[in-house]
Specification:
binds guanosine-5'-triphosphate; 33% helix; 7-stranded mixed beta sheet; binds magnesium ion; single chain; alpha/beta
Length: 198
């Protein structure tokens, strides 16, 4: 049974004028390209290929909106940090993200997906400060934890925790092993339900 039986894809936006109606509450998921955002969403929502049903060419530059239940959404933000990307694409990405964070009244939380084998990148830090600038709480998923030995994963968690301090909460996660799923669902629900208390 899905945690969100009525979850469905709403739309993909290439520019702010295409964003879905800004009512209720939504949580955004961001991270480097290939970090594991879509896999994390699929596991959290407990629907195979859910975040991929909308896959279209160039999707990495799109903001994908999903409805979890009435008035509650999950938003798959475009991945960042490609090695080779045209400057125009990079700028489009930056302005889309800026617009998203500054415009969305319903934005209640950010889930930042980071590969547990890497530390935070400068792009991740930019996302953190963007979220902080608009007073949106952040939870970091250190994903692909299954690729690390237990003690390595514990060290990675400790290092990132140390860097983040009070700026964000952080947990180990694995979409493959379904590790940390309950914890991430709890954070998601807390973000979604805290709307209006900002
Ligand atoms: N071992 C392992 N592999 C994972 C995990 N999560 C994702 N992957 C793999 O990592 C690759 C990228 O995963 P995606 O979920 O597509 O990553 P993404 O961040 O959505 O990527 P973009 O949409 O291209 O930015 C895929 O090959 C996944 O199977 C995990 O927890 N463990
Ligand atoms: Mg994806």
């Amino acid at each position: 049974m899905s945690q969100f039986p009525d979850a469905k894809f709403i739309l993909s936006a290439a520019s702010p004028d295409q964003f879905t109606s800004d009512t209720g509450a939504e949580v955004a998921v961001a991270g480097r390209s290939n970090a594991g955002k879509s896999s994390a969403i699929n596991v959290i929502v407990n629907r195979r290929q859910f975040a991929r049903t909308s896959k279209t060419p160039g999707r990495t530059q799109l903001v994908n909106f999903f409805e979890l239940r009435e008035g509650r959404r999950l938003v798959d933000l475009p991945g960042y940090g490609f090695a080779r990307v045209a400057e125009s694409v990079r700028q489009n990405w930056a302005s889309l993200l800026q617009a998203y964070f500054h415009e969305r009244q319903s934005l209640s939380g950010l889930i930042l997906v980071v590969d547990a084998r890497r530390q935070l990148s400068d792009f991740d830090r930019q996302m953190l400060s963007l979220a902080e600038s608009v007073d949106v709480p952040v939870h970091v998923l250190l994903t692909k934890a299954d690729k690390l030995k237990k003690n390595q994963a514990a060290t990675a968690l400790h290092e990132v925790q140390k860097e983040l301090g009070d700026a964000a909460s952080v947990q180990l996660f694995s979409a493959l092993k379904k590790q940390g799923v309950e914890e991430s669902r709890e954070v998601l629900e807390n973000f979604l339900n805290a709307q209006g208390m900002k």
